[in-house]
Specification:
alpha+beta; about 35% helix; about 15% strand; two-stranded antiparallel sheet
Amino acid sequence: MSTRNIPASLRQQIIDRANGQCEYCRLPDSIAFYPPEIDHIIARKHGGQTTLDNLARICWRCNHHKGTDIATFDPQTNDLTRLFNPRTDNWHEHFHLSDSELISDTPIGRATIFLLKLNRPDRVAERALLIEAGTYL
């Protein structure tokens, strides 16, 4: 089942739970250039199911970088590290802001920031504008 075939009731539950933002970078849906997508947190090719517990609302850029990955190398330790899971992890335990840059002291946060390219200059500049406008976090 592709994410296009997710039943409307399940899709609505995912949308409602995400609170109008990407569950990875927290980009508000209202300012996203492309419509948000539904992501299998653990991709189907890795055994992930199309269930509420394995689906997340995600912006196009995060989804483009994440793809079907479930792990990457922590840029600090070079250890293979799983990515942030919005169903089982608390966002604030893995990410915090320093000005408009996302910072993490955890391997999961660092790996996720690295793989999803959350601190590319364009994303940091966008986040700074959103913070200034009072629409981020």
